[in-house]
Automatic annotation (TrEMBL):
Any one Pfam family match given in the protein's UniProt record, by short name: FTSW_RODA_SPOVE
First-listed, main subcellular location of the protein, grouped into a coarse class: membrane
Keywords attached to this entry: Cell shape, Membrane, Transmembrane, Transmembrane helix
Membrane-crossing segments per the record: 12-33, 45-63, 70-91, 111-127, 134-152, 158-175, 182-201, 284-305, 317-340, 346-368
Coiled coil: none
Subcellular location: Membrane
Protein name as it appears in the record: Cell cycle protein
Length: 388
């Protein structure tokens, strides 16, 4: 074990430690105007304890065992997604939480991101180095992803649902997707986005009427400020409008810790959670945002280096899945507050308050570290299967 610890990428461990400190500091400022969330900074510090336990525990475990027993992991993940539809509790319009002993909550949609990465990796590694066949490989992998995607969308969780598609695209790309198939996917995606946006704008009234009174009615309040900011109601655009003003007011160096007007007056909702980037921007300015993004860049860079050093093929697949997951979360969380992405309930990795999100992200980094410790071995017969 001592030898394994010495081989760890301690740059990643240091980055995680710095992100932990930043998270606690930012949450402390973000909850100043929210009496109902007093103590969230201390709770986040406590969440990091099992987070680091998961990180080091999974790092010491041979990741190839996860790939070998993916069917059991997939079954458990799907069972939790189904269970939450029946007995799950709702938060902010999304029915996605399971109550667990100790007064805590588990969000299966967050957990399934890692489950999906392991599952797609296990299926891809069986194809050896041959180009992926559209009907034999791409379509089945897409169907495997669409099942949990549909279950999560049924929970009204757009943010996590979209992350599944991003993970799929990332793994298809590294899985030796043909350029012609990649072009088809890009064209179909682009056409779907353009047609979807135009249809949403053109038939907005009809869509609003059809969703009225349903659990998905709040989707319009998240999409309207993004696509139709001039026509969105004041209530719908309140969150993003104030977030943009707060971010812009931070300037180069910010207004100072716990001195942000919008943050401290609670004019930006969820500054301890989804909107925590607003705290960074208003109180630490452009410089503070750049430091945070630099930490993310170093973290992603180290992960990519580990994938390049791995000799066993399932390791790089796992890492690319984790990288795709984290990049999507970072881009979506920051993008929705500067107007380039719709507002979704996605957290800023390792920074936003949230036990399940932190635990899954730390576990995912544990898988990456496991690849560093065990991925320099030759191809493991445990995960080799007859390719098609």
């Amino acid at each position: 074990m001592i030898n394994k610890l010495k081989k760890m990428d301690w740059v990643i461990v240091v980055i995680l430690g710095l992100l932990m400190v930043l998270s606690i500091i930012l949450i402390h400022s973000g909850i100043a105007g929210w009496k109902d969330f007093k103590g969230a900074d201390k709770r986040m510090a406590l969440y990091y304890i099992p987070g680091f336990i998961a990180f080091f525990g999974i790092a010491l475990l041979d990741y190839k065992l996860l790939v070998k027993y993916y069917m059991y992991i997939l079954g458990l993940g799907l069972a939790l997604l189904l269970l939450v539809l029946f007995i799950g509790s709702s938060v902010n319009g999304a029915q996605g939480w399971l109550k667990v002993p100790g007064g805590l909550s588990l969000q299966p949609a967050e957990l399934f991101k890692l489950v999906l990465i392991i599952t797609l990796t296990a299926l891809l590694v069986r194809k050896h180095k041959a180009k992926l066949s559209f009907w034999k490989n791409v379509v089945p992998l897409t169907l495997v992803t669409l099942v949990p995607f549909g279950l999560v969308m049924a929970q009204n969780d757009i943010g996590n649902g979209l992350s599944y598609l991003v993970i799929l695209l990332g793994l298809l790309w590294i899985g030796n997707l043909k350029y012609s198939h990649a072009l088809i996917i890009i064209v179909v995606f682009a056409v779907a986005v353009v047609v979807g946006i135009k249809s949403y704008i053109s038939f907005h009234d009809q869509i609003e009427a059809s969703l009225a009174g349903t659990s998905k009615a709040h989707w319009l309040d998240r999409i309207d400020p993004w696509l139709m900011p001039d026509e969105a109601s004041k209530d719908a655009s309140y969150h993003t409008r104030n977030a943009k003003i707060a971010i812009a007011s931070g300037g180069m160096f910010g207004k100072g810790y716990m001195q942000g007007d919008f943050v401290q007056s609670s004019r930006v909702p969820y500054t301890y959670s989804d909107s925590i980037f607003v705290v960074v921007a208003e109180e630490f300015g452009f410089v503070g945002c750049s430091v945070l993004l630099l930490l993310y860049f170093i973290l992603i860079h180290r992960m990519i280096l580990i994938s390049l050093e791995a000799r066993e093929r399932s390791g790089p697949y796992l890492i690319v899945g984790v990288v795709a997951m984290l990049l999507y979360q970072i881009f979506e969380n920051i993008g929705m507050f500067i107007g380039i992405m719709p507002l979704t309930g996605i957290t800023l990795p390792f920074i936003s308050f949230g036990g399940t999100s932190l635990l899954i992200n730390m576990a995912s980094l544990g898988v990456v570290m496991s690849v560093r410790l065990h991925g320099r071995e030759k191809e493991d017969p445990l995960v080799q299967k007859q390719g098609s």
